[in-house]
Amino acid sequence: MTAEGSFCLVLHSHLPWLSHHGAWPVGEEWLYQAWAHSYLPVVDLLRRLGAEGRTDLLTLGVTPVLAAQLDDPYALRACHDWLGNWQLRARYAASRWRGDDPLLRDLAAAEHQAAGTALAEFESRWRHGFSPVLRPLVDGGVVELLGGPATHPFQPLLRDPVRRFTLHTGLTDTALRVGHAPRGIWAPECGYAPGMERDYAAAGVRRFLVDGPALRGDTHAARPVGDSDVVCFGRDLEVTYRVWSPKAGYPGDPAYRDFHTFDHPSGLKPARVTGKHVPPERKRPYDPALAAAAVARHAEDFVATVLARLRSLRERHGRPGFVVAAYDTELFGHWWHEGPAWLEAVLRALPDAGVRVTTLRGAIEAGHVGAPVDLPASSWGSGKDWRVWDGEQVSELVALGAAVQDELLALPAQDPAFRDPARDQLVREALLCLSSDWAFMVTKDSAADYARRRAKVHADRFGELAGLVRSGRLDRVRARAEEVRAEDGPFGHLDARGLACGS
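Above: the chain sequence. Below: its structure as tokens.
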């Protein structure tokens, strides 16, 4: 173990399940933007560093619902089209900005080149999906993979049988995609209720993530939960918030590319942040040289912050410390254009500064484990409690989810010897209704009407199929289940026989 201590970067890759038959095309745009600007460059970075012989670079969480989309043939074809369209939009911008600021002309050329690079990468490595790209990184020890329950539910609000089933389904889905089930998970929204560690232990999960306040900020080591052998890791907010906090962080620097300012005819983002209160029409053109200088400055600052934190922990505890910084993967490239460059600079600079870069698994192996702890109910949302997913604003969604679960568990038991695709589809609709994304979007007033509609659509589909099951109209339920599946596409490897229904 190095003198300064250990650092683990945890990235969480997740987008909600997006209907791919025109229900909300903006949703598909989310997926393809994140694919092009985050997943492609971050995976390319990990591959390049792995080729240099580097291992244990970071811990990567990939939710089953996102993995299903990144492996889906429809999404693969559509993303390929999107990348080609990106290149065409850059070509159009080049003609549109021909007589404008030289920085704009350079930006159009850089976008055209970036789109071409992304197309070549996608066509050579990604055409069979994400799983064949991810598995060598996992098998080679470049990253540690975290899984999670199917469809990203807020687990504390699930009935016990449903919670166990979603966890088992999610881990099984990941095992089928990459060859083995993860031993760690990023619990959706870091949601925790006392006793959930017993479900984790039964499912073979040995480590999971919580937010720092759940440990009262004492995040210097993994902590066994209760009397179990399952350990939790807490986000170090002092370090994490240097990059991205509710109020500040590196991506807001005036030199960085502005995410919110569009050139609408081309769909490109030609401006730099310029200033927090500068209106879009007055923002300055993006200057890559200024942005590169900011990346170098912020990488140096982050390394200094990690070092200071580790030294403080060593003084306090008398042993080398440990720091976990955790973010959404989509921050790097999608929300923050320069994020992948910053990430590479940090991953290269930390070892040179005497910091051991590792994973959650590697931290345990290095002995960064403290005394057992009894965790409180918690999440990583506003207030660090459950208010985002169980508050007054989303009371109707909470009631809907509870009713769907109760009806699901009251259905006649399924013959365990026969896998019924109709029952699989019925359960799928119930689980998609329970996604935590809908409550988050409503609470944060981000496409709230869309979120309410999606929850209701899945609940209505479930209710229709459940009614047909109860009536014994098996031919009709199978026909309707196939219609629903055709409308919205398949989701992962879900076998409803694992859910105990009936009295």
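The chain has two domains: 5-365, 391-498.
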